[in-house]
Design a protein that fits this description.
Elements: H1 18-43, H2 47-50, H3 52-55, H4 57-76, H5 80-84, E1 87-91, H6 103-131, H7 139-171, H8 180-185, E2 187-191, H9 200-209, H10 214-244, H11 264-268, E3 283-286, E4 292-294, H12 295-305, E5 320-322
Antiparallel strand pairs: 1-2, 3-4, 3-5
């Protein structure tokens, strides 16, 4: 996209198309599921040691997200997804494409970029807990959660309505703001100017001539990390598209391993709850281990010990799945 900004002067800017703006928003929305999928893969190597990451996955992602976006806002005046599509943020009142964001605009941009997906994840988790009947025992906490969900639904509805209005105004050239957030920050988007990139041959020439300095090495590492992130984002989007198109082959699916042999003890205690050794009352599966318990038995165990009674893997009530058996 950078070639579109090659002809621009310091006092003019070209508005990106609505398709590029929507595309970068879609890319931004894939960062969290991609990160959490990688985090789950990392946890699976040693659930006992790294299981706590799952309980704090929203906070871990928010930290990573903040560091990533802070780097891009500082160096490119744009978020990660905006940089990927060759866009940058500029002040709407002083639309010079070589101008920098003010410190206030940069900080507010960073806060809004991080805060919105974090709140979304938390409210979504509250909704799932409410559906499963996992409400806090404290009445005041239940009251706060319920009204937080309702307030978020109202806000989301209003934001979507305003978002459509801003899209239409942007397309019809009645507004330079592509979203309410940009209006709030007095920012708009334009194409970033092309940057000079040192080729691999030039780097080798510097190395041979003894002109390769620490700054060149840091620049090379930064460039490699950026390209890796951008390629990973593209790859994840491609995999999502492939799977959503209902192709016969799922790119993320792994070959099925052979069925495990059933031990004598497993046959002896088959169809019994591992805690009370009785036929499960309200059968409930624990996803981290695959064992089925009585709902009351496993709930009490998790509240007290916070792990699977059989395997010892870290677990919480969110990992329980009710099984509905037809008798």
């Amino acid at each position: 996209m950078a070639e579109k900004g090659a002809h621009l002067t310091g006092t003019t800017y070209v508005k990106p198309t609505i398709f590029e703006i929507v595309a970068q928003e879609l890319l931004a929305s894939t960062l969290e599921p991609a990160f959490k999928k990688i985090l789950s893969f990392f946890i699976s190597f040693n659930p006992k040691r790294y299981g706590w990451f799952e309980q704090w996955s929203d906070e871990v992602y928010a930290t990573f997200h903040g560091l990533l976006q802070n780097f891009y806002l500082n160096n490119y005046a744009a978020s990660f997804s905006e940089t990927f599509y060759g866009l940058k943020r500029i002040n709407s009142s002083n639309s010079k494409i070589n101008g920098k964001l003010s410190e206030k605009q940069r900080k507010l941009s960073l806060i809004l970029i991080i805060l919105y997906p974090y709140i979304q994840s938390k409210v979504q988790q509250y909704k799932l807990d409410e559906v499963d009947g996992k409400l806090p025992r404290n009445e005041w906490q239940r009251f706060l959660r319920t009204h937080c969900i309702k307030a978020h639904q109202i806000f989301l509805f209003m934001y979507e309505i305003f978002g459509i209005y801003y899209y239409l105004a942007y397309i019809s050239n009645h507004s330079s703001y592509p979203s309410p957030t940009f209006n709030l920050l007095s920012l708009t988007l334009t194409y970033s100017q092309p940057t000079e990139v040192i080729s691999i041959s030039e780097i080798f020439d510097k190395w041979k001539n003894g002109n390769f300095y620490a700054n060149d090495g840091i620049h090379l590492i930064q460039r490699g990390c950026m390209k890796t992130l951008e390629f990973s984002a593209f790859l994840f989007q491609f995999i999502n598209w492939w799977n959503q198109e209902n192709h016969h082959t799922n790119l993320l699916s792994l070959p099925l391993p052979p069925s495990p042999t059933i031990s004598v003890i497993a046959n002896q205690y088959a169809k019994l709850c591992p805690v009370c050794l009785k036929i499960p009352s309200i059968p409930t599966a624990l996803t981290v281990s695959g064992y089925i318990f009585c709902y009351t038995c496993i709930t009490k165990k998790l509240q007290i010990e916070g792990k699977c009674p059989v395997t010892g893997y870290p677990a919480k009530e969110d990992n329980l799945i009710r099984i509905y058996v037809n008798y």
